[in-house]
Write a sequence for this structure.
């Protein structure tokens, strides 16, 4: 094929197409290459005509790669499947920013080239495994949520959960001066579905109280507001709407600390202020009340574990909206739902 392409001044793809048309391959190779060319043409049409995340899902189905990993059923295959789901989620965010497939792939390539850790860089983004042996003045551990860290796959095994706890300790001890532990109230899970309310990681509650300064919720600050009605929630999730304040500059970040009574050293090598009196983090899971309340974790006999988003009415007529990871939003009559407190 290379020689044919050079001889006729063609690119490799055009050379393959011409050789197929002229039936220059052996019968078995001809059949395989025709099937391959047909598949690539189908994928190209999908990329041009469908939203970016839908096109990527079609690629995974059409190529059979996702099914192959599922059948492989190994820890490495599960990790690759998780990466593919995250790829779909990232593509949905890219589509919302108006990026094309080419833009998205260019960005992904740049990220892949930056996988090496440069300890002199102002900011390093790396996994907990890659952080072993390294130290930084300031460390942020994000995604401290049940099902994410600790991961959902570790929930059924004491050994796996202990490994997650050990990794959390590794991450915490990478910080020389300051450690920030963050979790998102609402997160769009793998697969770019609707935003779901999360439960804070149990590891947050295991941190020594005397070392904790809670920079979390403040009643004076704007909160995320997801409407309870199904249509409005879906519209908000599709637009990736966030109604809270964003902090995207040094001035904004300084304001964030000031609103919580904390000084912020904006300049490099600025002295680190002494810790303020500890304010305990919220209990994990949220406090259990007799009636289901927003934020409470509940268990449904059919849908499994979920999080209460909204409660309407009181007594026997009360209706609740619950977000279940696998089934989305469900509106239930509380007295008939058969819910158990999680």
């Amino acid at each position: 094929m290379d020689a044919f392409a050079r001889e006729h001044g063609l690119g490799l793809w055009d050379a393959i197409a011409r050789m197929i048309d002229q039936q220059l391959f052996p019968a078995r190779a001809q059949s395989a290459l025709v099937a391959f060319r047909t598949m690539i043409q189908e994928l190209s049409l999908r990329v041009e005509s469908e939203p970016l995340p839908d096109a990527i899902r079609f690629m995974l189905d059409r190529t059979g790669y996702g099914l192959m990993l599922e059948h492989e059923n190994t820890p490495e295959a599960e990790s690759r499947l998780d990466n593919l789901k995250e790829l779909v989620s990232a593509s949905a965010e890219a589509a919302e920013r108006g990026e094309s497939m080419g833009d998205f792939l260019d960005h992904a390539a740049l990220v892949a080239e930056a996988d090496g850790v440069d300890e002199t860089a102002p900011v390093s983004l790396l996994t907990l495994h890659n952080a072993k042996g390294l130290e930084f003045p300031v460390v942020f551990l994000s995604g401290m949520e049940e099902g994410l860290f600790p991961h959902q796959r570790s929930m059924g095994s004491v050994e796996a959960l202990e490994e997650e706890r050990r990794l959390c300790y590794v991450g915490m001890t990478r910080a020389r001066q300051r450690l920030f532990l963050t979790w998102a109230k609402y997160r769009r899970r793998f697969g770019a579905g609707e935003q779901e309310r999360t439960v804070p990681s149990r590891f947050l509650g295991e941190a020594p109280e005397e070392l904790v300064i809670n920079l979390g919720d403040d009643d004076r600050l704007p909160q995320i507001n997801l409407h309870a009605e199904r249509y409005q929630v879906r519209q908000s999730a599709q637009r990736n709407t966030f109604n809270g304040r964003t902090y995207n500059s040094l001035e904004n970040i300084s304001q964030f600390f000031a609103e919580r009574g904390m000084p912020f050293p904006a300049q490099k090598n600025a002295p680190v202020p002494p810790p303020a009196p500890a304010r305990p983090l919220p209990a994990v899971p949220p406090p259990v009340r007799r009636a289901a309340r927003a934020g409470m974790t509940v268990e449904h006999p059919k849908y499994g574990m979920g999080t209460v988003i909204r409660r309407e009415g009181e007594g026997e007529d009360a209706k609740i909206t619950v977000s279940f990871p696998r089934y989305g939003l469900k509106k239930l009559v509380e007295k008939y739902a058969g819910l158990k407190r999680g």
